[in-house]
Amino acid sequence: MSELPTGATKTLKASALKAGASVVGIADASAFDAHAPKGHRPDDLLPGARTVVVVGGAQPRAGDWVATSPWLLSTMGTTERIQGVGRRLAQAIESEFGYYALFVPPGTASGDAPFLSLMLAAELAGLGSRSLAGPILNREHGFMYWSAVITTAPLQVDPPEAVPACPAPSCREMWEREGTTPCLRVCPLDAGGCLSGRLEGARAVRTGYDAARCNTRVHTHWVGGFQKVLEETLNEPDRDKRKMLVYGDFMTRTLWAITYSSTNIAQCFECMRVCPAAHGLREMR
Amino acid sequence: MTSFFRLDPEVYARHKDEVLRLSNSFQTIDARGCSDREIAERLGLDERTVTEIRVVAERDVYPLDEWERAIEFKRKACTEWSAAALKRPDLKEP
Amino acid sequence: MAGTITAAVTSIGLAAGARVVGVAAAEAFRAGVPEGFRPEDILPGAKSVVVAGGDGPTAGAWRCPDHRVMEITGYDLRENVAVHAMCDYIEREQGHYAVQAPSLPVHGHEPPMSMMHAAELAGLGSRSLAAHIILNPEYGLLYYAALITTLPLDPTPPLAEPACPHPGCTAMYKRIGTTPCLRVCPACLAGTVKEKRIETSTYDREKCHSRAQTYGIGSFQKALLEIVNEDDPARRREQIHSEFFTKSIQSLGFFRDSIAQCFECMRVCPVGRKHRKLK
Asked: What is the pLDDT of residue B92?
């Protein structure tokens, strides 16, 4: 294996930004050991892994967040754009530096479990921190999509983010005033939602998260929805009623979402829509 | 507690032709079809029911045989065009 | 000022791969679009809609004598890339909101916003006798994507002269009472031509669906219902493993490559055909 050229980390980061990433950071591969279960660590996917390069970007634009159509964010997603950047970086590491590089597949290893948690990777690469609502928030850009590359290259590692974006100052004021935050109010666990938590000073503490319910919202029309309607159909003895299920709006929309998976990957943004830290800093007209 | 929306087959049978006729299913170039909300107002139904009737009817209106005929139609049309194009490589006008 | 910015937006769209770019005023949609499907229903304060048209099949694909090739050739979706590039410019450089217009059907065959209507209003083409497909006078069949923005831009006016009927089709209609598209697909299309203009035109979308989407969501549902209604395990097994159901599932997985599966009315259309003539 060749020596890593001087300035390789800087060169790689510059090319990531040029390729369309909004942020780029590098995590130490061994840092995952303390947080990720065995089988889901960088070394499990690429033996000899030293670092993990993480890129963030392709997040909804300001217009997407203020749009009033419920269909916009759920059918015109942009997740896939950041994966292209990740793939390009993997190629660059191998062709330019001569080190192994593995693009972390965005799909799941089994059920809903990813091969490697991209959120954990982003956090360890210093690109953001976990919010009360769940997603990693970057201090400058807010909510982002992530892609990661595991490599044997000994790139220079970034420290974790020192100050978290969540809770935002306005959320702290709201907590003092009302004992809740925008995300907890919009999707409360004790009233049929997904989230519960509290603020302890400048720290957000999540006390509950119903992942299964969140799945029915984020992936309303998805593989799970298809399976549910199929089961209903097979259990329905009346043929006319079966037709209503198979040809119906829910099944049709679900099949559209599955086929156009790249832009239908996320179908609920309500905790992020109300989050003051999620949308970046710039004012729009 | 909201439950999964199920369309009553009888309601479907009663309204499917009219819903489809008013929608964009069969189109005329100089007149747009009605939205589900507009159809609902006309027929005195709720919008959700109209959407469901329309979506089922779009799929239901032609039998599966029509899909088989489609395969044959395309094969024939494409082959004939190809034969004509090769006979007339300068083909510019119909 | 708006003219300079319009030119900048357009040039970014073209550089990102759009074949054509046009602009419509958001308010122009009110006349022909029901409430709930207009630009301002999607982005409050919408002022403009920018439409990008991208290339369809290559000239070589049009020449292939096997119709199944174009059914799974797909296209590169450059118009969507162009729209994203223009959205980025508008938000980052101009500080105005911009969103890609939602165009995927969400309830049956109805999209939240019609890209065909947007292309027409942005002066990129006009409706044709062939399934009312928007024909660009120069390139014929193009695929359209659009963005909605709060940025005021200079609209490009709708076409003064419609692209359809083509002079050759007008002459043909005068001679034998039909046009190439009407003749090739009388099942989906009907229409008349009068004084070089479309006089009447109808289009059976659901019949067209069985041809343009022979394998896909619709065929999957049709076949699935037959399967779940089949009581005989041996027959059910045949249905599940049939070529039709197999290809239907494949089309769901490779949907980008299977977006359009019938080109017969466009194959015979002379508008833009000059771009399909190569060596």
From this structure: 47
Pick C168's closest partner by Cβ from B36, B73, B93. Answer: B93
- C270 interfacial to chain B (CB closer than 8 Å): yes
Q: What is the ipTM of this complex?
A: 0.90
Question: Residues of chain B whose C-beta is under 8 A from some C-beta in A?
Answer: 4-9, 12, 51-52, 55-56, 59-60
A2 — pLDDT class (breaks 50, 70, 90): low
Using a CB–CB cutoff of 8 Å, tell me whether A247 touches chain C.
yes
Nearest-CA distance B34 → chain C (Å): 7
Question: What is the number of alpha carbons within 13 Å of residue A77 lying toward its C-beta?
Answer: 21
- Sign of CA pseudo-dihedral C214, B21, C136, C147: negative
Q: Tell me the CA distances in angstroms from C129 to A78, A146, C88, C205, C265, one per residue in order.
A: 35, 46, 36, 13, 9
Task: Output the pLDDT for position C63.
Answer: 84
- The partner residue sitting opposite C184, judged by closest CB among B26, B77, B92, is B77
Nearest CA in chain B to C60: B82
Query: A200-257: per-residue pLDDT in tens?
Result: 988 999 999 999 999 999 999 999 999 999 999 999 999 999 999 999 999 999 999 9
Q: Which residues contact C98 (CB under 8 A, 6 or more apart)?
A: A61, A63, C86, C87, C90, C91, C147, C148, C149, C150, C151
Which chains does A contact via 3+ CB–CB distances below 8 A? B, C
Question: Under an 8 A CB cutoff, do B12 and A244 touch?
Answer: yes
What per-residue confidence (pLDDT) applies to B1? Answer: 65
For A4-26, write each residue's pLDDT tens digit.
999 999 999 999 999 999 999 99
Q: What is the pLDDT of residue A48?
A: 97
pLDDT at A281: 64
Query: Is A97's pLDDT higher than 80?
Result: yes
Q: What is the dihedral of CA A228, A233, A237, A242, to 10 degrees?
A: 140
Instruction: Please say if the pLDDT value at position B91 is more than 60.
Output: no
What HEC string does chain A produce?
CCCCCCCHHHHHHHHHHHCCCCEEEEEEHHHHHHCCCCCCCHHHHCCCCCEEEEEEECCCCHHHHHCCCCHHHHHCCCHHHHHHHHHHHHHHHHHHHCCCEEECCCCEEECCEECCCHHHHHHHCCCCEECCCCCEEECCCEECEEEEEEECCCCCCCCCCCCCCCCCHHHHHHHHHHCCCHHHHHCEHHHCCCEEEEEECCEEEEEEECHHHHHHHHCCCCHHHHHHHHHHHHHCCCHHHHHHHHCCHHHHHHHHHHHCCCCCCCCCCHHHHCCCCCCCCCCCC
Which residues on chain A are in Cβ contact (under 8 Å) with C48? none
pLDDT at A171 over 50: yes
Nearest residue to A228 via CA among C161, C70, B4: B4
On chain A, the residues whose CB falls within 8 A of the CB of C102 are: 69, 71-72, 75-76
In chain C, which among 72-101 make CB contacts under 8 A with chain B? none
